[in-house]
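Aim 2 progress update. The chain analyzed this quarter is reproduced below.
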Amino acid sequence: MSNPVLNTSIRYPSFDLIRLLLAVEVVVVHTWASLDPHFNWPGFIRAVPAFLAVSGFLVLKSFASTGSWPAFARKRALRIFPALITSLLLGYVLLDYTFLINSLTVWITGGWMMPPHTNSALWSLAWEELAYAVLAVLWALGAYKRSVYIWLLLAVASVISWKVTTLPISPYFHVLSYLAPAFFTGNLMFLHQDRLMRLGSVLPWVFFVVVCLWTYIPIPGIGGDMAPSVVQAFAVVWAGMAGAKLIPAKIPDLSYGMYVYHIPMILFLNATYKPENPFLTGLILTVALVTFSTASWYLIEKPALRLKNRAGAAPVDGARVS
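Predicted C-alpha cells:
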C-alpha cells in the first residue's frame, strides 16, 4: 500500500458543517439542561468523542503537511489558545473571578476537578491536547507508516472502553474511555481516505442520518456502550470528508467559539434574567452566541490562523477542539 500520510492535498467539503452541527447539539443540550431539572436526552451524537474523531483525521493531516513537531505545536496553539483565553475573560466579565479560576481548573485537570460555577465545557480540551501529543509520539515511532499499528491501537482502546463501560463508576470515566477509540478511528479514516472517497458523496450522509437515529432504532447492542461511539465517530468523519457539500459557500468556522463561549453566556442569562420562557431564553442565547462567535472568528481566531499559515506550511483545514 502506498503511504497515504503523504496525501495531504485533498480538500474536504463538509467538515465545517459537521463541526457546526456538533457544536449546536452541545449548546442545545446544555441550555435545555440548565432550564429543566428533569432534562434527560442523550443527544443524537456523542459530541466530544465525535469532535475527537474529526481531530484524529484533520490533525493527522495537519501533522503530515507540517513535517515537524515545533511547527505542529505552534499551529495547534494558535488554533486553541486565542478563543480559549477569550472565553476565560468572557467568564470573568459576565460572572466573576471565581468562575475564571474554576474554569482554569477544569481545563487544566481535564475535568478530574469539576467545581461548581465553572465553564464545564472546557474539560475536553486537555484530553484533545493530550491526543495531539500522542499523535506526535506515534508519528516519531513510525506508527503511521503502516496502518496495522493504528488498527491494533484501536482494537486495544475499544476493548478497554468496553470493559470500562461495564463498571459501576462515574459516567465521566465512561466518556473518557470513548475518546481514544474515536481518535484512532479518525486516524484510520485519514490513512484509508482514498478508498473511502471512492464510495460516493451521498452514502456518507445517508449513513450519518441513520447513525443519528440510532437511539430510536432497535439495533442489538454489540460491544456494550462503546460500540455506538466508534460507529458515530466513523459516520461523522465520513460525512465530513466525503459527503456531498450541502452548503455551496464556505462558512465561517464558528464551532469552536460556540463550544467555549456558550456556558458563560447560559449562566449569565440564567443568573441575570431568571428566565421562565425557555423559547425566549434560547432565542436570546442564539443571537448573542452567534454574534459573539462570529466576531471572535473574524477578529481573533482567523487572524491567529493567518499567523499559523505564515509558519511556512501550506494552509490546511484546522481541527475544531471539543
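Confidence is low (pLDDT under 50) at residues 1-6, 218-223, 311-322. The radius of gyration is 19 Å. These observations will guide the mutagenesis experiments scheduled for the next reporting period.
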